[in-house]
Design goal:
- With 709 residues, this protein is mainly α.
- Among the domains are: 135-382, Serine Threonine Protein Phosphatase 5, Tetratricopeptide repeat (Alpha Horseshoe); 442-606, Serine Threonine Protein Phosphatase 5, Tetratricopeptide repeat.
- Helices cover 70% and strands 0% of the residues.
- The chain is built from 28 helices and no strands.
- Helix 16 crosses helix 18 (477-489).
- The protein is elongated.
- It starts with 5 loop residues before the first helix and ends with a helix.
- Mean pLDDT is 78; it is low at 1-12, 113-121, 125-129, 407-416, 644-676 and 705-709.
Length: 709
Amino acid sequence: MGVRSDSEDTGTRGRSPSEEKKSRRRHDSSDEEEKKIEKKERRKKDRSSSRDKQRDSERRRSRSRDKRRDGSKERRRDRSQDLKQEGSREQRRRDKSVDKSERKRERSADKKDEPAAKKKPETLTTKTGGAYIPPARLRMMQQSITDKSSEPYQRLAWEALKKSINGLINKVNSPNIAIIVRELFAENIVRGRGLLCQSIIQAQTASPTFTHVYAALAAIINTKFPNIGELLLKRLIINFKRGFKRKDKLRCTSSVRFIAHMVNQQVAHEVLALEILTLLLESPTDDSAEVAITFLKEVGQKLTEVSPRGIHAIFERLRHVLHESTLDKRTQYMIEVMFQVRKDGFKDNPSVPEELDLVEEDDQFTHMLTLDDATSGEEILNVFKLDLQYMENEEKYMAIKKELLDEGSGDEDSDEDGESDSSDSEEEKLESAPIIDSTETNLISLRRTIYLTIQSSLTYEEATHKLLKLALKPGQEPELCHMIIDCCAQQRTYEKYFGLIAQTLCQITKTYVDPFMKIFADTYSTVHRLETGKLRNVAKFFGHLFFTDAIGWEVMGIIKLNEDDTTSSSRIFIKILWQELAEFIGLPKLNERIRDPTLQEAFDGILPRDNPRDTRFAINFFTSIGLGGLTEDLRSHLKTAPKSSAAVPNIRKKSVSSSSSSSSSSSSSSDSDSDSEEDKKKRRKKADKRSRSTSRRKERRSRSPRRRR
């Protein structure tokens, strides 16, 4: 890399190009030879290193073989030593067992006279409930126990009942639901109602897609055992409330879905569904709105049929939530989809599938439970409890099972028949014993049901149909009539809707006519307690019932239209009532009704004729309210009536006591003469005043033109 010298430069410059090429080739060939030599040396080194590696691996293998041989020898020695030790241990154990057997014999000989020792607690009698027992062994254990009322036998029966209920609930499906129901009725589900409800809820939570099947099963059981349906509904409501408080979305969704299908099967009332939807949408979040939409999809079709007003209010609330736009975009989209589902008529979410519509409406028992009513789920029923009357209860359920499954057998012994008859007579006595409800919870729930039914109906025909389906007990008809009138009185203005409901009820069944007539009499006697708006609504309500002839006009006989027997409130009531009648019937027809000879007793108090003073009061009253056309007969009667008859009542009121009929007649004649003379004097004075006033006016008029001139 040094600097070329002058001699080298001169040497290269003197060479020809051919010589330069030859020199370059020489240099290249020498370089190639050097490279070949280097490669040969590398190969030699690699071969030597591979040989060294092979030698090392062989040495390692030989060492490992030696170690294995040494280890096997040591293991053989250890095994021989262990065998010797085990032999000595076995001898010791044998000696100990011989000693124990001798000791046991001695103890048994000493304790022959003592009572037998207590047995060790079995697995089923422990507090934890015991471990798994195979069915065959369980049957053998049951057969070995002779006393069937003992605790071990009852515990074994409880475990068997629990397993059979869980197995049947896990197998249920829409095709085999009838078979499963018969098998369930064969088990004592009255004793195991807690287990049954727990198993149904757990199965529904595990597989929500089969909720409609479990609801149909619960509906069938509810027709025969309403207390089981009520217990299941209470637990579902409590489960929902717990999930709602803990903000557990999955728990709320599963509970709400089951409740929706219970409403569809008419096990629960639609009021519960409306309460749940109102609670979820009161302060909506993304999760609560999603749960409400899930619930509304399942129960929407049923609510549309039963309570169109209620579901309309719920959708209005959803529309308001959508316009607020405080929720997530996903939730808003779900609400929009819900409106489209409602528009399509919930065709993809039928309330009850055809294959599961197994219970008729008349056979179903609907529970009026609300969110506040479900306080305890009776979880104690899930745990075994000793029954002191186990055999009697089992015999009672056997009789129920025979009725349900049509297993009538006439080959039973006379003793068993006598026992069953005695148990039946005891049950009848218990059922016939009256139950007094001092808290009036049933009455309050009935009023709530009536109110919600009236307010949630779209037309009066729908409301009447629902009210007639309530299946009221005897004596509860007046409560229904009172609730209709109270609902009408609470409105700001009178609505014909309530009058049409009462009219339809009276025309369909005559049992409601007498309660409405009694309520009219009570209302008139206490009309001074009503406010002006309520008084107007009630008067128009009864006016509707009168002009449609829903109730009889005879009840108007309680009205006495005079100055002494009426107040300002009662006169307003009579005014509105008769104005309503005149508006709808008309004065000519109303006059015909008043002149009807069969109703004269009813109108004697309103149109009095026994006392001229009361007659004048009635004439003035009807004339002031614009119904003077009704008083033509009264006016003619007042003109044709003798004066003595008109004066006698006034004299009787003024005079404190009269000695005889002659004295009263003389006093009346003298009073009448004095009254006539005074009237004549007054008339004369008035005529003189009028003549004087007219003369003065003429003089003034005559003077006025002179002054102008």
